[in-house]
Amino acid sequence: MQNSALWFRQFGQPEHVITLEQAVLATRPCGMLRVQMRYAPVNPSDLIPVTGAYRHRVAPPQIVGYEGVGIVTQADNPEYVGCRVLPLRGDGTWQRWLDCSPQWAVPVPDDIPDLLAARGYINPIAALVMLKKWPVNGKTVLLTAANSSCAGLLAQWATMQGAVEVFGVCRSETQMTTLRKNGIKPLIINDHASLRFAAQQVDVVFDAVGGNLATLLLTNLKQDADFVSYGLLSGQPYDARGCAAKPQRFHLRDTLAVTHSQEWQLWFTELWPLLAKSQLPEVKLFALEEWREALREFSITGRRCKPVLAM
Fold first, then answer.
1. 119 to each of 27, 178, 203, 306, 308, how far by Cα in Å?
2. For the chain, which residues make up each domain, given as ranges?
3. Which residue among 82, 89, 141, 167 is least packed, with the fewest CB closer than 10 Å?
4. 123-253 CATH pick, 3.90.1300.10, 3.30.9.10, 3.40.50.700, 3.40.50.720
C-alpha cells in the first residue's frame, strides 16, 4: 500500500518547498495506532515552521500539519479499531496514513462532526488554556487579529467566562461588521488614537500579531494589565522597553512539553462541549493533491472560509 504525504525537506516559502510524495506504507510499529486521515485544516501554525521561523526547535525533513481527524484502522487493542481520533503530537497530519501513540490520540465524541473535530486542537486548546491561565471574569479584554479562528474562540469563551467587554483589532470595515455581530467592539489597526484609548481601559490583551501594533498597545497599558503574546503574525518583535505592563509569552508547544497525557485528555473532555456550541468559520475542502490551491485560498486577505485538506 502507498502513502501520500506533504513534506518539506528544506526551509522556504511553503508553496516553493512543500512537495507531495508517495512511499510504501511501512509496517505499523508495535504499540502504535494506525490512523487513516480524513481531514486536516490549514493553519498559520502549520506553515510558519516551514519558513524556518522556528528553526531552533523545528528542522526538516518533516511532514507538514499539526491537527486533523482520522479513523483507527489498526491497533494492538482491537477496541481502538473503527474509532475516530485526533492523532496528535506525532508525525505530521498532512498525509493519508499516520501512526500515533494511544496516549496522545484524542477520542472524538459521536456528536462532534468530522469537520469540527478536525479543527479541535491548535486554536481551541490554545484558547482554552490561555483563559485558564489568564481568567477574564469581570475584566475588559482586547484581541488582536480579531478575525482569526483563535481570537474568535477567545472572544466567545471570554464572554461565557464573564468578560465585561471585548475589543477586537481588525483591518477593514467589512471585518468590523462581522465583529459587531459577534458582540465584539471593533478597532481598525491604523486608528492609533482609538487603539491607545482602548489600551488604557483594558485588563487583558491577547496578542497574535506582535510588531508595531503590540508595541503601541504595550506602551499604553495599565501597569497591572496582562499582555499575553501568543503569536507573531507580523513577523516582527514588539518593543517592551519602558512599558509599565510586562508582556507574558504563551506558546502551546512549551505548555504541552510539561503537560501529562492525563491532563491533556481532560482538556479535551472540557473542550468538546464548548466547541459544539461555538461559531467557527465555514470550511472549503481541497483534495490532498490540491494543496497548492488550499495554500492560495489560505493567503487571501479577508478570507472567510477555512481551507481544509480532504484525504
1. 28, 21, 29, 10, 9
2. 2-119+280-310, 123-253
3. 82
4. 3.40.50.720
Contact predicate 229/241, CB 8 Å: no
Tell me which DSSP letter residue 131 carries. Answer: H
Mean pLDDT by groups of 10 residues along the chain of 311 residues: 96 97 95 98 92 86 96 96 94 96 94 96 95 97 93 94 95 82 90 95 96 95 95 87 91 87 92 92 96 95 88 94
* Rounded Cα–Cα distance for residues 124 and 116 (Å): 11
Q: Which positions ≥6 away from 190 have C-beta within 8 Å?
A: none
Q: Which three cell numbers stand for residue 266?
A: 481532560
What is the grid cell recorded at 104? 496522545
Characterise 295 by phi-psi region: left (phi > 0), alpha (psi -120 to 50), beta (else). alpha
Which residues make Cβ contacts (< 8 Å) with residue 255, sequence separation at least 6? Answer: 129
CATH topology of domain 2-119+280-310: Quinone Oxidoreductase; Chain A, domain 1 (3.90.180)
Cell numbers linked to 131: 483563559
Q: Of 247, 185, 244, whose CA–CA distance to 214 is shortest?
A: 247
* Cβ atoms of residues 198 and 187 within 8 Å: yes
User: Residue type at 132?
Assistant: K
